[in-house]
Amino acid sequence: MWPENAADIDPLRNPDVANILDQLAAQVDAPVLVGTITADGDRAFNSALLWEQDEGATAQYDKKHPVPFAEYLPDRDFWYPLAPDLFSLVPRDLSIGTRSNVLDIDGVPAGVAICFDIVDDALIREMVDGGAQLILAPTNNADFGRTDQSAQQLAIARMQAIESGRSVVNASTVGVSAMIDPAGAVINQLTPFVPGAMIAEVPLSSTITPAMAWGTSLSRAIALLGVGGATMLGPVRRRSTRETLRRS
Q1: What's the pLDDT at 55?
Q2: What is the Cα–Cα distance from 188 to 202, expressed in whole angstroms?
Q3: Average pLDDT over residues 79-92
Q4: Taking Cα atoms as reference points, which of 45, 189, 188, 174 lies closest to residue 117?
Q5: First CA to last CA across the chain, in angstroms?
Q6: What is the DSSP code (8-state) at residue 41?
Q7: CA-to-CA distance for 142 and 163, rounded, in angstroms?
Q8: Bridge partners of 46?
Q9: What is the pLDDT of residue 68?
Q10: What pairs with residue 188 in β-bridges?
Q11: 22-70: pLDDT as tens digits
Q12: pTM value?
């Protein structure tokens, strides 16, 4: 697995890049999951391509949770004139992906979470419901420099491993790349800003954890209790305020 945006030129539209990926797949004797920006008509996507030697892209996932004001600019006509120098850094609006986030990699169903996807519990549940036995999380942390953002993202990936009961492989361009087991423990990791590669075995799992089985229902129940409590407390507070005013 290579990080998000590892191929800055789309191999689906450039035969030279496609040839490089063919050579890489032959060298490692395995399919390669590589991040790039793809196009479909006038729409662009942040994509992960599963590339196989002499076959090209055999599967594709398009990021379902592009980041507003980073990967697309909502209401561009309104926002752009307010800070043109800043929003020129977002020259195009990436579209929301609709493809499955579970890819079959040599018979292993693997969930794919591109960067910010990893924080979306609904997408993780979608992977598990789709039969994913591990989670692959390519990311690009370059814009954040040497801040703690990459370490924070790794912590989130470890929490998602625990909640989903799945191994998570986090591959970053410059930040922390790590392999995480289903208990959230780091199996192996690379030093940020230092080129490197990892090869290790990670456990596969089909376990359905309580978080995956009941997480959505429990979250909704807690939200409803909170709304109900606020609704009941509202009149009490108003009556208390009126009584205080009458006494004074």
Answers
A1: 94
A2: 10
A3: 92
A4: 45
A5: 70
A6: T
A7: 27
A8: 37
A9: 93
A10: 179
A11: 999 999 999 999 999 999 999 999 999 999 998 999 999 999 999 999 9
A12: 0.85
- Residue corresponding to tokens 């004139």: 81
What is the residue-wise DSSP string for 102-117? EEEETTEEEEE--GGG
DSSP character for 28?
A: H
Residue/partner pairs of 123-131 with CB below 8 Å, 24 or more apart: 123/64, 123/65, 124/160, 124/163, 124/164, 124/212, 125/212, 125/215, 125/216, 126/101, 126/102, 127/101, 127/102, 127/164, 127/166, 128/164, 128/166, 128/208, 128/212, 130/100, 130/101, 130/102, 131/102, 131/206
Cβ–Cβ < 8 Å for 158, 180? yes
Task: Please name the residue that has the structure tokens 């196989």.
Answer: 52
240: part of which helix (H) or strand (E)? Answer: helix 210-247
Q: What is the DSSP-derived secondary structure letter of residue 183?
A: T
HSE-CB for 12 with a 13 A CA cutoff: 17
